[in-house]
Amino acid sequence: MDIELGRKSINCNEEGDSQKLGTIDPKSTPFANIMEVDRVDGRTGNQRRPVVCTRGVLNRAHGSASWAQGDTKVIAAVYGPKAGTKKNENPEKACIEVIWKPKTGQSGKPEREYEMVLKKTLQSICLLNVHPNTTTSVIIQVVNDDGALLPCAINAACSALVDAGFPLKHLAVAICCCVADNGHIILDPKKLEEQNMKAFIYLVFPNSIQSVLPEGSLKPGGEVTEHGIITSVTHGVMAVDDYFSCLKMGRAAAVELSDFLRNSLKSKAGNDPSKAG
Amino acid sequence: MIVFEFLCTLIGEHVLLRTIVGFVAPDLVELNLEHQWEKMEQKLANSLTMTVNEKKFVENALLSDIRVDGRRPFDYRNLTIRFGSEDGSSEVQLGQTQVIAFVTGQLVQPYRDRPNEGTFAIYTEFSPMADPSFEPGRPGDSAIELGRIVDRGLRESRAVDTESLCVIAGKLVWSIRIDLHIIDNGGNLVDAANIAALAALSTFRRPECTFGGEDGQELIVHPPDVREPLPLIIHHFPVAVTFGFIGKENIVVIDPTHYEEAVMGGSLTATLNTNGDVCAIQKAGGDGVLQSVIMQCLRIASVKAGDITSKIKNAVESYNTQRSLRKIKRHNPSSAVSNVAKHHAERLTLGANEVCVGNQSNEHDKMSERNSTTKGVSGGLASWDPNSQGVDADAWRDSLPCATPLDKYKEESSQVNPETKSAEQFSDTNSFASTHEATNIVSPEKQSKTLKDAVKPKRKRRNKSTSNAHAS
Fold first, then answer.
1. Cα separation of A274 and B42, whole Å?
2. CB atoms B184 and A73 under 8 Å
3. Which of A59, A96, A190 should we substitute to test contact with B (largest number of B Cβ atoms within 10 Å)?
4. Is the pTM of this model over 0.80?
């Protein structure tokens, strides 16, 4: 009798895809000055780093995922739903608890901020009424930080929740845009680029809806749901126009990323029947 | 007092306290004890409880020398050592147990009683993601014990040379900090954490410091891209080997899983090195065992320590070779183009940095997946920077044996590449060519010239013919 149940892990890497899809034809976009940007690793202004998403990395956790964007790598694990909510939390809904573990050192104020942002983002994508009076813990471990850490963590947490089978309304797709001193908008910066920028934004969009009905993806008023913004965290000062340009670029990148997410999360074949213990 | 004790034995302390305090301050009781009770219940619910049947099964199976996961009593689980993209970070997987280690260094003032020695400290984090019963916040007893065992093995046996960490005696020394993160608890955390710490220490590099400035007294810390950082001096590798004692007859098993840990009556951790020195022994309580059993354990441990040390050394060596190849790229006669090439070679070797020691997927899969990764990257290169040199063959070729186990899904996606039609077809050339189907990578005219220099012409011709045969 084999008490231990094996865990399979699916590793999806879209290096080839991202290089191809991440480039938007410059003639069709309003920001024609993007292609002139000279980045350290040779990417263009609106090109993401290659993404590696692996589900089921951990054996004990109910759901786990590791997400790497270039050199930035984050592991997320989900335990839950567990009985009971924390104090001061609404017992009519599920409660989400986020624990952020930095690479080295003690958890300090920046970690608290990340936990709060992540918690609020995840609360908006989860169906909280399905498991009332329960707590689901999401634990994030930073393996390497090379820019765009919070978006990486949000993507990892979302994949981990999918891996755990937690009921979600839709997926969250996170991306980082920054504004350079000369006004160029750059997507997915590395750490050095982030530090030299005037301002950068972390944006989280819902993933695009694939509806059976042709009108299914439109909200009343004709605005497509995938253009809604779940979370926007900005650092630094930028002009309003720059902010809107970042939003446009972020949306376009999020659409491709959400296609990648849909394909990679769908491809996992029948899960193990039991992960308890 | 005597009445109190008598009542205690009858009812139980908790309940007694509660009734007494209940008479005095009813509200206080409600809040505090309720809360503690809830926490205890949560902890019990989360920790692993084994049924009597399961315990009996484990013990009975051991009587016939079989363990629940099919191992024999003195077999270790599969050990995989991988390294991150930065120096001094390692990830170890021992069966289902996973541990990540990070090593960082800082210049600090030395301790007053040791003015010319550096310091090192170990911080252990039992992450709540490893086990539902691990709580965030302060480390518990087992976390502290693990940290102490690893620390004793490294410090007291003088495995890490601390005198070489001294910069200015009495004023500035290097302080090395090792962070161990347990991310998956599959049992035997001590061994895995120890291996992770050793691997991370072996690949850690500290910046070089020299004296300069006007008076020659100023300390300059050179950043890594100016001067090559230096590795730590490690004299020997103290490897921890853990034994569990299960059942009334105290049957010995090595490398217990977390099920066996829940069942075992006692455990012994022996830290040894390949020179035959016993660096540390930890047997904290538990069932008593015979001296002869302990001697047998030590003998077995020294054999296992040799195995593990050679695995660590192999992994570190391959990491170092790849790292030096990356360095070569960096010193290329500079142009923006070659920097691009360097970075892409780096990106490639980032994937290849994962050195798999232990049983992994078969070579064929490795090779084809490796190639499709490369193709993905260089295909992308061709699409937006036609003047780039593409991927350098050397870094590419040498990183091939250390392939990451990647999924077929990615292979499918990277084969769809419309830009490839225009460029020249160039097939992979290496010694493994015969064992796999030739997968083609795309590269512009310039790249074929560089690769041609690196590769013998007759091999290329042979592979071209095989690729044509496969294509047709």
1. 21
2. no
3. A59
4. no
